[in-house]
Amino acid sequence: MFAALLALIVAAPIAPPILAAGTEAPPDATVALEKARAAYEYGDMEMVVDAARAVAEGRVRPTPGQRVQALRYLGIGLFLTGRLEGAETAFFDLLRIKPGIRLDPTTTRPDVVAFFESVRARHADEIRQAASTQPGKRFIWNFLPPVGQFQNGHAARGWTIAAIEVLSLGATIATYAQLRAWENPNDHTFGDHASDARTFKTLNFASAGIFAATLVVGVVDGIANFRGDRGEGETLAFTFITPSGVGFRF
């Protein structure tokens, strides 16, 4: 049951691998980022730029976490296609949103990392000022799902967790109240409702278990995706380019 619940919460739609040339912007940020990821894996930097730009510019209404990922794709894609001014703008926007973010030098091409850090150095004052005006994320909220999911920019996941919590907690309270109503306070038996009481006890235990499992999954998910200002972003995985090829970082 726990595994099925985890799969339900973290499931995300899978989009077609490549965005055909000349097509319009994808209908939502999730699809656009999946197309950017697939293009990144195939090494088609022009398509990475096209798909990521739709998200970075807000044409598909991204969450904060999706925009962070899109700006990272966009900056790297522009740099690797020789558009350094555009890459600098994308990285600068990324650093204003996430001032402490870094590209992992063990999984990202050294020239990309060096350029990214040069952008940080050139715009240090502006980045510092942006950081001082942004509300910080709080690690403690990850222990109160779905608050952690909303904080991390995963609204759909947050609403899923919230719905499961409300339904399971409601069922737990309702079945417990019915059992108390049937119970004889003198001998704690259920009289004519003995058979129904067994069924309601099973339902009560099951709903309580689902509620507890949802809380655990929510906490784990919130912590796993929390990055604060010094993290790598707000996504579960990121595709990267190295001198020897392409891989995934979790």
Short summary of the structure?
The chain contains ten helices and two strands; from the N terminus they run H-H-H-H-H-H-H-H-H-H-E-E. The chain has 250 residues and is mainly alpha-helical.
Q: What's the quaternary structure here?
A: single chain
- Our count of helices gives 10
What's the helical proportion of residues? 55-70%
The strand count comes to 2
Question: In percent, how much strand structure appears in the residues?
Answer: under 5%
Ranges where pLDDT stays below 50 over 5 or more residues in a row are 12-23, 229-250
Main beta-sheet annotation: 2 strands, antiparallel
Mean pLDDT: 80
Rg, Å, rounded: 24 Å
Order of helices and strands: HHHHHHHHHHEE
The computed structural class is mainly alpha
Distance between the termini: 25 Å
Write a structural description:
By secondary structure, the chain is mainly alpha-helical. It is 61% helix and 4% strand. It is built from ten helices and two strands; from the N terminus they run ααααααααααββ. The protein has helices spanning 2-10, 29-42, 45-56, 64-80, 84-97, 110-122, 124-133, 147-151, 155-182, 194-224, and strands spanning 238-242, 245-249. It has a two-stranded antiparallel ribbon. α4 (64-80) packs antiparallel against α5. It is elongated.
